[in-house]
Every structure is written in C-alpha cells, then in structure tokens.
Amino acid sequence: MQEIITRLFQQRFGRAPASILQLEGDGSNRAMYRVVGHGLETTIAVVGPDREENRAFLAYSRAFREAGLPVPEIFGADEEAGVYLEEDLGDTTLFDALSEARKADPQAEFPAAMLPTYRRIAEVLPRFQVEGGRAVDYSVAYPRSAFDRQSILWDLNYFKYHFLKLAHVPFNEGKLEKDFRRLASFLLGADTRHFLYRDFQSRNIMLRDGEPWFIDYQGGRRGALQYDVASLLYDPKAALPEELREELLGHYLDALERYLPVDRARFREHFRGYVLVRIMQAMGAYGYRGFFERKPRFLASVPPAVANLERLLATGFVPVELPELRAVLERIVASPVLRKTLVEPPPGLTVHVGSFSYKQGYPEDTGGHGGGFVFDCRGLHNPGRYAEYASLCGCDAPVSDFLGERPEVEEFWKHVRALVEGSVDTYLTRGFTSLSAHFGCTGGQHRSVYFAERLAKHIEKRFPTVNVRLAHREEGRWPANRPPADVAASNGAGPKAATPATPVTAS
Questions:
Q1: Chain Cα centroid distance, residue 195
Q2: For residue 506, what pLDDT is reported?
C-alpha cells in the first residue's frame, strides 16, 4: 500500500515523500497516513476498503470544491486500490478546540471564545445543504441516494439491536416497530430535497487558521435540512447548553433564509423529530463500537447522549404519539449504569486486575484492547468448602493464610507472576497503555480474589510507574455484602458453628 501512496505523492509533488506516518483511527475501517515531502509539503493518504464509499467521497469533494465550499482538495486517487490523497487540514478538530477552550475557562458553561466559530459553522451549513445539494451527483450516494423511509428504519433498528439489546434495555418489539414506522412517516413530512451531510459533528469539522473546513461527508445523500443542524447542536461530546442550542438554531435559520423561504414553526416541529432520530442513530454506533468492540471513546459518549435524551423528554418530546419508544427512552434515562461517566485512564500503562465467577461468565474488557490474561483458579483447593471461610473472601487474612500455606498455590503464583511481569515489561517498552489480568474461580469470592489482590500489590511494588486498577466483579454477591435473608437462604437458616477445617458444600 505504501508503494501506491508513494506513487500518488510523486505524481502530485514531483518526487517521493520523505516519510509516511500512520494516524490514529477515526472509528471507521479506513487507515489514514500523513505523507510528508522533503520540502515539508504534506498530504493525507486514505486507504478505504469500501470502494463505493470512496467513490462518493471523491465525487462529493470535487463537486463541493467547484461550488466554493471549504472541503479538502483531492490530490490524486487510485480508486481500484482504494487509496487517495487529500489536502492536509491540520490536526485541530472543532472538538479539540472546544476541549482546549473549556480547559482555559473551566467555570463557563460554554467558552465564549468558541461562540464565533459555532456561528460561522451554522452559517456555512445551509450552503452545503442547498448549493452543495444542487452540485452533487446523488447517483454515487452510498448506501442509498436519499435518507428515505428505509434509511430511517435502518437507523432505528441499528439503535434497537446495537444499543437496546447490548445495553439490556427491555422493550416490546412489536410495539416498538409500530412506533418506528409512525416516527418515519412523521420525519418524511419535512422538506427532503436537499443535501444531508449525515455526520455533521465536531470531530468532522477541522479548524485551520480559525476557519472551519469540513470532512467525512461520504455518507451524504438527499434528505431533510433538520438532520444536520440537529447533529451539530446535539453532538453529545460537545455538550452545548440548551440556551446556546436555541440561539444557534435561530442563527442557522437566518442563514438558511438567504437561500430559500422557511416556515420556522413547521421547521421546528420536524427538528425535534430529527434530533431524536439522530441521537438514536449515534447511540447505535456507541453501542456497537463501545459495548461490542469495547472502544473507550464510544463508551464515553453514552452518558452525554443519555443527557440529550433526558432533555428532549423534559421539553416536550416530539409531536407524534410514540408510547413504547418513549417508555424505552425513559428506561435509558433512569439507568444509573448508562449515566455513569467513563473515567479517562491516566497517562502511561494501566493494568486492570480483577476477580470473577465463571458461573457469571467471563469478565468484560475494560481496557478497550480486547485481550489480556484470564487465569483459572478452579484447579486449586477451595477455601469455600469450609464453613469457617464461607462468609469470608480472599482478601481476609484467614483465607489468605489458608491458601498461602499450600505448595500448589505458590507454584501457580510463580507462573502467573512470570507471565504478567514479562508482559508489563514489554508493554512499558513499546508504549502500550492497557493490560488486563483476571482470575476466575467458582464463586468469585476466595481463590480468584486472593490472586487478584496479590497481583495488584505485586505490580504496584515491582512497577511504581504503572497504574493499577483492581475490581472484584462478584463483590456484591459475597455473603457479607448480601441482605441477611439472602445469606440465610443460601447457607441454611441458623447454622451451627462448624469444627475448623470441616468441609461443607462447594462454593
């Protein structure tokens, strides 16, 4: 692939590049590279596996450039190989600039320095929708030429299967499908003749010399004006205050009226519906990329999206009856788990250490890299078989002493320590940021807890610069942490004190 990038660069700039540096992924299947020439000329090389998506991006880019819209110039393309070069717009996205401005003014609900930029973006958007919509060839749109009923239902079902199912939010499928069809009919009552950018949000807007430039419109198609302004104003990670959303919506409508007449009351009615469908589409992506692929950036977007849903529900929802969908959204808003903010990992390497019960399934990957160690402790003698240890856990001294006296436990520990130490050394050398090591046993209470505690302490002592996060997944199920009635039911009401080291039922 680098040969093709080199050839395209040489055709454009006259000689081979000095370096080709891979950039961090954007959440798609594309690979991106910054290509630097000997004279410090730069370009971005994109390797896209989806030929039809590439074709749409290239065609739209050329049409937008001819219409005078601020999008990257295409420097060269090998469409057969799925490689193209585009203008390098720098590294600062709107989201990056907003984050930095918030750090500089942490007390402000919204940094005043960013308001002119958002106003400018709201002014440019109608040009994309109306003028750009006249310039593009919708025959290259992918996967459909319009955001029609089928497209809307795809988005709604994406939300259902990749967010509701993966987040274990209950719903009545028949009733929900009926609401989906009703919502789609309502949305299609808007003016759908213009260009719909599809992903008009803060990570797809670049700032160069203070001016906005626009990328990632390959999913664009014909559709309603409301969708993209809803995407901008209800971008979860941007978290715009409600008053600012209203101000910017008015500013957008003022700009839109330069291109066509606008019935503001009717526009606003449909706007709320498109806010809803955009939030749901985004949550489907967060569910797939976050819950399924375990990518931290997408998991971190879930609580802000839930907050957007809460605001929409509190301010009148949408002007169409959707009883099952509303009930589902209220369950999401009421969930403390979905509202829990993901803690950003500290810099450097973090080792996630934990214990779990095999009865409850394998642990989730909290590090976001999809791998690590899982050690099975069930081959070791179980303290849970003895009554005097039944109410204790592996972090209690009697259990720790019981296990520490057994030769096979020390042998097991020797191998665990060697494996994990070797990986930590390698991860530190290579600059990796996350490693996991989990221990499982029958109940997740004794053996697994003992080893998780021991490993966490060992890593903290052996590698002082490493961050260690320790979690015992089944802690809420330990007898000491359960209601008395539950403990009595599981142990037998009013048990007699057992003779020391007398086996009871396995745990």
A1: 27
A2: 33
User: Nearest 10 degrees: CA dihedral of 445, 449, 451, 456?
Assistant: 180
Using the predicted structure, report yes or no on whether residue 500 has a pLDDT greater than 80.
Answer: no
Closest CA to 6 of 37, 52, 32: 37
461, 464, 466, 472 alpha-carbon torsion, rounded to 10°: 30
Per-residue pLDDT of 359-378, as tens digits, reads 988 887 765 555 689 999 99
- Please tell me the distance from the alpha carbon of residue 373 to that of residue 438, in angstroms, as a whole number: 6
Mean pLDDT in the chain? 90
Q: 472 — phi, psi (to 5°)?
A: -105, 100
pLDDT at 368: 57
Q: Take residue 107 and report the two structure tokens written for it.
A: 């007390």
CB 89 within 8 A of CB 217: no
What span, in angstroms and rounded, lies between the C-alpha atoms of 228 and 221?
11
Helix (H, G, I), strand (E, B) or coil at 223: strand
| Residues whose CB falls within 8 Å of the CB of residue 178, separated by 6 or more in sequence, listed in order | 324
| Closest among 180, 476, 107 to 328, alpha carbons compared | 180
- Predicted local confidence at residue 293, as pLDDT: 75
Which alpha helices (H) appear in 389-446, and where do they start and end?
397-404, 407-430
Query: Alpha-carbon distance 220 to 237, whole Å?
Result: 22
Contact 260, 305 (CB under 8 A): no
Q: Is 42 left (phi over 0), alpha (psi -120 to 50) or beta?
A: beta
Kindly report the number of other CB atoms within 10 A of residue 124's CB atom. 19
pLDDT digits (tens, 9 = 90+) for 90-147: 999 999 999 999 999 999 999 999 999 999 999 999 999 999 999 999 999 999 999 9
Cα 15 to Cα 36, 232, 285, 367, distances in angstroms = 11, 40, 41, 42
pLDDT band with cut points at 50, 70 and 90 for residue 495: very low
Contact 140, 59 (CB under 8 A): yes
pLDDT-based confidence at residue 490 (cuts at 50, 70, 90)? very low
**Residue 148 exposure: Cα atoms within 13 Å on the Cβ side:** 7
What structural domains and CATH numbers belong to the chain?
A: 2-87 (3.30.200.20), 94-339 (3.90.1200.10), 350-491 (no CATH)
* 3-state SS class at 254: helix
Tokens 């021991």 sit at which residue?
A: 454
What phi and psi, each to the nearest 5 degrees, are found at residue 162? -100, -15
Helix %, strand %, coil % of the chain (to 5): 50, 15, 35
